[in-house]
UniProtKB/TrEMBL annotation:
UniProt keyword Iron present: no
Family: Belongs to the P-Pant transferase superfamily. AcpS family.
Pfam families: ACPS
Organism annotation: Sorangium cellulosum
Residues the entry annotates as binding Mg(2+): 8, 57
Lineage, opening ranks: Bacteria, Pseudomonadati, Myxococcota, Polyangia, Polyangiales
Keywords: Cytoplasm, Fatty acid biosynthesis, Fatty acid metabolism, Lipid biosynthesis, Lipid metabolism, Magnesium, Metal-binding, Transferase
Protein name: Holo-[acyl-carrier-protein] synthase
Localization per Swiss-Prot or TrEMBL: Cytoplasm
Length: 175
């Protein structure tokens, strides 16, 4: 039984800009240590990052907004020319278990300057999806669109309830 579906598209140019502006800080913020190791050899870092970014966003959408889930709670795994998989950690895993998710199907593609990903959550239908209140009233993104050209959010509120971390135009962290 399908328990959730998510899709996301990410411009590769957007990731090129983020890497040019914030360098490894952005790379490390979005990717887990195992993901960074598996992509260390890639010349096309922005393309690889855009695919992982889109995959994580797609899974968040499939998890009904995934309250309390951050970048490192979602880990894309896979070797070249093999289908990608998604490992869920911490709050992402707990939410998936509560929903009755048994398998995460993931597809990532790159073409024409964009990366796209689709995530399908499969389970037996025994669990339950979060209520709208539990999901914060609406589906949310790990990285919302820029608001008025001011600071950009790089991380959602973490499970510990701390404030969102942002970088200003000079790349300095702000809370």
């Amino acid at each position: 039984m399908i328990l959730g579906v998510g899709i996301d598209v990410c411009g590769i140019g957007r990731m090129e800009e983020a890497l040019a502006r914030w360098g490894n800080r952005f790379w490390e913020r979005v990717l887990s240590e195992p993901e960074r190791r598996s992509l260390a050899h890639r010349v096309d870092r922005a393309t690889a990052l855009a695919g992982r970014f889109a995959a994580k966003e797609a899974v968040v959408k499939a998890l009904a907004g995934a309250p309390g889930v951050g970048w490192h709670h979602l880990e894309v795994r896979g070797a070249p020319r093999t289908p990608p998989t998604m490992a869920l950690h911490g709050p992402a895993r707990a939410l998936a278990e509560r929903m009755g998710v048994k398998r995460v199907h993931l597809s990532i593609t790159h073409d024409a300057g964009v990366a796209a990903a689709v995530a399908i959550l499969e389970g037996d239908g025994v669990g339950r999806s979060p209520t709208m209140e539990e999901a914060g009233g609406e589906s949310r993104s790990l990285m919302p669109e820029e608001a008025g050209g001011e600071s950009r959010s790089l991380m959602p509120e973490e499970a510990g309830g701390e404030g969102r971390t942002t970088l200003d135009d000079e790349g300095k962290e702000r809370s």
